[in-house]
Amino acid sequence: MILNDATRLFIETHIHDNIRQLALKKIPADVDKSLAFSQIEARQILSKKVPSWAANPDLLFPKHLSLEQCSSELTAKYKAKIVKTHCGAPPQPDNDDSHSTFIDLTGGLGIDSYFLSENFRNAYYVENQKELCELAENNFRVLGRKINVLNDDAKSFLDEIPCDPCQKSSWIFADPARRDAFNRKMVSLRDCSPDVVELQEKMLEVAEHILIKTSPMLDISLICSELKNIKEIHVVSVKNECKEILVLLERGFAGSIKIVCVNLRQDVISGQDEFCCFDDDEKNAVPVFADTIRKYLYEPNSSLMKAGVFRLVSQSFKIDKLHVNSHLYTSDNLIPDFPGRVFEVIAFSNFDKKVKKELLKDVKRASVVTRNFPLTANDLRKNLNLQESDDTFVFGTTMRDDKKVIILCEKHV
Predict the structure, then answer these.
(1) Upstream peptide bond of 194 is cis (omega within 30 degrees of 0)
(2) How far apart are CA 158 and CA 171, in angstroms?
(3) pTM here?
(4) Model confidence pLDDT, tens digit, residues 162-208
(5) Is the pLDDT of residue 26 over 60?
(6) What are φ and ψ of residue 303, in 5° steps?
(7) What are the two backbone dihedrals, phi and then psi, of residue 244, each rounded to the nearest 5 degrees?
(8) DSSP character for 308?
(9) Closest CA to 275 of 291, 298, 250
């Protein structure tokens, strides 16, 4: 895949154009139309996901599917932070033993390979699609990162590696594909490709640490039953949307699993909410249940919801839970560092025929949310005859006595 000058200029000129409309126009003969369109589309997709790569005119990108499945720049940097935390100082040129080797078994677009490899002296990108390997070689060269690119599949590559138990600083990263040949979503790691459940023992012979990226749709308890030597599980959200679950394995580890729930907002250092606990903490937590709605209402972010630490949230922040299955909380005193959304309660009432005439008599627009409620948010909005708005919020939920309530509130700034 080579960009001639005319194609490069065409891409730069039309980088923000609508592809469908552009296809109807006459394209100069010296422009590689197919290549130009694919690169424009790719850069538009990546402009928010991986902005530093999208802005580089010398990088080349593959078909649409690989772009959809690749990590974002923000989540890739978070993975690099995990590795750096365990590795310590960055590799030194005069130290042959420093953080010896990093292997990405599922190279793909190379986003994770690029950001993770900065922590290591030697790095390998392994990918079974030849086209992606060719693009990765070009992109790593343009970005000035020395990474060995190998066109191979994960299992074959691992079978060929001599196991060296002295490689205490080696890491393997894997992001198994989560759809099969018929584009069906997988529900178990065993259904993904490569099968990291089958390969985990071999991977831990090769490297002391394994970092596995899994779908946010996978059940964490199932992940724990399928994988061994789990040291940490990171549930990663971006702007309150759960994006991925990262599983850190360590050779020989047999202790309690650390659970890290993180919500990234703008960067991996300061722009994030983080809540840490261990796998037994939720089981042993003793929540307090609310007898009424108090001044503040709390909704945990999506990472905490995915991790299922509902009892622990009540205990840790000393806030009252509304119901065992209503994952909302309340308190009289503000918890300023709560990892989620915080609302100031205006009023509340039972969900009955009077709610529209009394509680919501002056409310025409509101953002509607339901938690443990018989109606969906859309159905409740229709029932209450409310238009969408981000200024006022209406929650439909259930209290500990199983009474259905409507809570009118506004977001705390």
Answers:
(1) yes
(2) 13
(3) 0.90
(4) 655 445 558 999 999 876 655 566 678 988 889 999 999 999 999 99
(5) yes
(6) -70, -40
(7) -160, 155
(8) T
(9) 298
- pLDDT tens, residue by residue, 56-102: 989 999 876 567 778 899 999 999 999 998 876 555 555 554 458 99
- Name residues whose C-beta falls within 8 Å of residue 319's C-beta, 6 or more positions apart in sequence: 288, 298, 313, 329, 330, 331, 335, 338
Which alpha helices (DSSP H) does 301-353 contain, by range? 302-307, 310-317
Q: Which amino acid is at 297?
A: L
The three state secondary structure string of 220-263 is HHHHHHHCCCEEEEEEEEECCEEEEEEEEEECCCCCCCEEEEEE
Tokens of 357: 């005439």
CB 307 within 8 A of CB 261: yes
- Pairing status of strand 320-323 against strand 393-398: unpaired
What is the sign of the dihedral through the CA atoms of 339, 341, 343 and 349? negative
- Provide the token pair at 22: 């552009």
CA distances to 1, 214, 295, 363 from 222, rounded to whole Å, are 42, 12, 38, 44
- Which residue's entry shows tokens 């609508």? 18
Tokens at residue 115, please? Answer: 């950001």
Which letter, b or e, does each residue of 329-362 get, where b requires 16 or more Cβ atoms within 10 Å of its Cβ? bbbeeebeebbbebbebeebeebeeebeeebbee
